[in-house]
Amino acid sequence: MEIFTPAYYEKFRCLAGACPDSCCQEWDVDVDTASAAYYRSLPGELGDRLRQVLTDTPEGTVMALEEGRCPMWRKDGLCEIQKQLGENGLCQVCKIFPRLRHDYGSFAELGLELSCPEAARLILGETSSCLKAGEEPGAPENPEYLPEDMETLRNSRRAFLEFLDAETCPMPQSLGVLLLYAHQVQGELDGEEPEPLDWKACLEGAKRYAAPQTRPLQPFFLGLEILTPGWKRRLEAPAQPPKWQPEHRALLRYLVQRYWLQAVSDLDLVCRVKLMVSLCLLTASLGGDLLPTAQLMSKEIENSWENIDAILEAAYDTPALTDANLLGLLSLR
User: Residue 162 to residues 128, 156, 242, 278: CA-CA distances in angstroms?
Assistant: First the structure.
């Protein structure tokens, strides 16, 4: 099977005890069925402890937090399971995080989770959207989508990323082009004739549709599930005009690479592009150094499928997420 990876993927190395944050706190770790059964079968003190903390929920088994921490997370920042059982003893989530894999049947794309501080450093330091092609053992599967739909999405994603990499426009204008171009590509997915990306026409359209008066995004995001007090404090702070940083281009590149092709599942590209635009706007409005802000945003939003689904479902009927409001917040005029 053909696989594609960004340049930073192979550079990732876990910081372990030196990490400024931890993937072992502030969220319940999902434990796959095989690992849960293995943990519950272990003898001795470790087995007794695991049987005590493993919790079954309607969605599956989780490692229940204790005082906001995974009970297997030691004071030295390392994992008790890994110490006693080795890396092979870790559950699937802990083995692969922050690595991502998106399978599309005939090919797969790999990436990293922005919610990991070291991964965020690599992602936000990237200056190119090029993906390295490679092969892995195994035959590709028949995709559950029409090949022409995936071709439309891959071609349009490539076109926008080439525009983004060229740095033709500042970030606000690039986001305006993105939203208008998404509607054009949506038309192609709905059966219209394909057209090339005309960024100047998209930008003019974005300026026309931008609302003169806008609603801030923070109240909407406050209504989502919140994991940490720090995120709530950031959202409750007075809204500020967006402060764009050079790394926002890398953030947008990451979001486009991660979410654009996922539209093949339901052929709704626009709602996913609204997700991208709103997350870029939100991080710019919160201010401060983008790296910790984007990492915290990803931890709160991207690592919660409930929050991602809530944003996608709200994309068309929430005033803060209308095209006009998002374009107005970009201050394109």
Answer: 9, 10, 24, 21
- Lookup: tokens for 290: 């983008």
Closest by CA to 19, choosing from 121, 123, 90, is 121
Residue 54 identity (one-letter amino acid)? L
Using an 8 Å Cβ cutoff, are 129 and 69 in contact? Answer: no
Q: What's residue 109's pLDDT?
A: 97
Which residues have a Cβ under 8 Å from the Cβ of 60 and sit 6 or more positions away? 30, 31, 32, 33
CA distance 232 to 235: 5
Residue 26 binned pLDDT confidence (cut-offs 50, 70, 90): low
Going by pLDDT thresholds of 50, 70 and 90, the confidence category of residue 73 is confident
Residue 227 tokens read as 């994991």
Q: 331: phi > 0 → left, psi -120 to 50 → alpha, else beta; which?
A: left
Q: Within 13 Å, how many C-alpha atoms sit on residue 277's CB side?
A: 31
* Cα of 264 vs its chain's centroid, Å: 17
pLDDT at residue 94 greater than cutoff 90: no
Confidence of residue 202 (pLDDT cuts 50, 70, 90): very high
